[in-house]
Amino acid sequence: MDQICRSEELIKLLGEAEEEYPEDIIPYKWSFPHEYIPETITQTDKFINFEISAAIDPRNDVYKDLTIYFYIICHQDAIRYEENGRTYLWYDKAVCELDNIFSDKNILGIGTTTLVSNVPYYPQQKFKGRLLKFVVKDFSDGAKYGR
């Protein structure tokens, strides 16, 4: 959540660039630490949500495999995003920024985070987006192994 709230590009894409403290607004309004899909659609909202799962590495139980899923969705009426005279898909801009933030960096776990999939995601008839999947290793017991 912290990385989402600190990214100038994501802050802009979520419509909070003019706010003095976007990190106080974005959590639980535009970004959720779970797969959130609005039930009643009254606005053309945009969301960047995520889930983290962990499983013991079957080859070496000292490590666990962390999988981070990002659910990037927007209302179908907000898909077009214009910037500097060019038109983009809003969710593609968000995906590019998440890829820049997390790929090949040591933000979570140990080692670098790797993007393993980027697939279409349609949670509701009026919402479209992408589902990203990143993986990284971590220690299975951080306290036990000095973390």
Tag the structure with descriptive keywords.
single chain; 147 residues; alpha+beta; 4-stranded antiparallel beta sheet; two-stranded antiparallel sheet; 19% helix; globular
Structure description:
The structure is a single chain. With 147 residues, this protein is an alpha+beta fold. It has one domain (35-140). It has helices spanning 2-6, 8-13, 22-25, 90-102; strands at residues 46-56, 63-75, 80-83, 86-89, 110-124, 127-139. Strands 1-2-6-5 form a 4-stranded antiparallel β-sheet. Strands 3-4 form a two-stranded antiparallel sheet. Strand 5 (110-124) and strand 6 form a beta hairpin. This is DUF3168 domain-containing protein. It comes from Lacrimispora amygdalina.
Topology readout:
Blueprint (H helix, E strand, L loop, with lengths): L1 H5 L1 H6 L8 H4 L20 E11 L6 E13 L4 E4 L2 E4 H13 L7 E15 L2 E13 L8
Antiparallel strand pairs: 1-2, 2-6, 3-4, 5-6
